[in-house]
Amino acid sequence: MSTLVHSVRLLGAASIDPAARDSWALFDEGRVAAIGTGGDLPPADETIDGAGGCLVPGFIDIHGHGAAGASFDDGPDAVRLGRALHRAHGTTRAVLSLVTASVDDLAVRAAMVADLCESDDTILGSHLEGPFLDAGHKGAHTESLLRAPDAASVDRLLEAGRGTIRQVTLAPELPGADAAIRRFVGAGVAVAVGHTDADAATAHRAFDAGATLLTHAFNAMPGIHHRAPGPVIAALRDDRVILEIIADGVHVDLDVIATVFAVAGGRVALITDAMAAAGASDGHYSLGGLAVQVVDGVARLEDGGAIAGSTLTQDEALRRVVAAGIALPVAVTALTSTPARAIGRPDLGTLGLGSIADAVLLDTELRVQRVWVAGRSA
Questions:
Q1: Could you tell me which residues come within 8 angstroms of residue 309 by beta carbon, excluding any fewer than 6 positions away?
Q2: C-beta separation of 175 from 202 below 8 A
Q3: Cα 233 from Cα 217, distance rounded (Å)
Q4: CATH number, position 367
Q5: Where does substrate bind (predicted)?
Q6: Is 124 helix (H, G, I), strand (E, B) or coil?
Q7: Which residues span the domain enclosing 267?
Q8: What is d(CA 247, CA 316) in angstroms, rounded to the nearest whole number?
Q9: Is 308 known to sit in a ligand binding site?
């Protein structure tokens, strides 16, 4: 069935002025079949008046752990439940983040995600957030399971993922990290520096070895000091690197986020890092076997109080950064084409002619009105 959405600002299509308010897009056979501004509208089986809102590419989350009371580590049913919640908030495709576990358990979970990828192409693969992390910056990861990377463990995980591991976070100061980075990158995995005590020089070395991401910038790593710039400055200074940001106003101050956008707007990927409480009530949860309490939408470990993921959705992240002064087209790019590029999927995150028709219709308050996945209403 073909669908025409008209009377909108159309973002994510290079040939269309994003400021124009009379733009339209036609979806047919899962693709963007036509786009334009004003003039005669093409016929369609379904016609939707966007009422002056925005039509944007479907959001892509490359770092999230769950939602709706479910954690992605817990199997296919939990994945389906969490994905449905995020899809309703505009996230049409996602990488499933898996928290630190034993290599054996992570291999099983990576294989589970690989199986899901075969039947659901909105699941883009897995993100291994651990176990190759620094204990001093472990955040909500079980310290006893953290370890330095070794060739056998890296190969075991790659084999289990069957080509579907899209991202791995590791601390580059750990023994064996340089070799692990090269092995992962050689297998097509985007390596992210994160949960680390690395200084700027160590981060630069990791980027030279092939790392191209910074996991939730500012969180679980040294901050910026005028005599010790740390990994954030190293990433900001390197055009090869994309910086993840959790824009919930808790993990990073919104003025700091606006500053990052001012320096590297095209290299910011807005992620949720959402855990099971996203879209669910406050209360007690578990993340990677650790007890978490959620109060007023903020998740913290019961032991020690460290922030334990977020309860964010990507549409809320969009509203927050726009309210902080980020131009809407720049903010949308950080939710769409930039995260797609970060994991080697430049075919996603766009509404250009012929692209996959993943789209979100937003009203004038940037609230989600409709979601399409490959041209079908989700």
A1: 65, 140, 273, 274, 275, 287, 292, 299
A2: no
A3: 10
A4: 2.30.40.10
A5: 140, 219-220, 227, 251, 307-309
A6: strand
A7: 59-342
A8: 8
A9: yes
**Tens-digit pLDDT profile for residues 170-217:** 999 999 999 999 999 999 999 999 999 999 999 999 999 999 999 999
Cβ(129)–Cβ(169) below 8 Å: yes
Domain count, the chain: 2
Question: For residues 157 and 10, what is the distance between their CA atoms, to the nearest angstrom?
Answer: 41
End-to-end alpha carbon distance in the chain: 14
307 marked among binding-site residues: yes
Which residues neighbour 237 within 8 Å (Cβ) at sequence distance 6 or greater? none
Percentage of the chain exceeding pLDDT 70? 100
Residues known to be catalytic: 273
The strand pair at 46-49 and 3-10 is best described as parallel
Q: What CATH number does residue 70 fall under?
A: 3.20.20.140
Residue 246 annotated in ligand binding: no
Count the residues in the chain: 378
pTM of the predicted model, to two decimals?
0.96
Please, which residues bridge with residue 46 across strands? 3
Tell me the β-bridge partners of 94.
61, 123
pLDDT digits (tens, 9 = 90+) for 9-61: 999 999 999 999 999 999 999 999 999 999 889 999 999 999 999 999 999 99
| Vertex 65 angle, CA 128 and 368, to 5° | 130
Residue 182 annotated as binding site: no
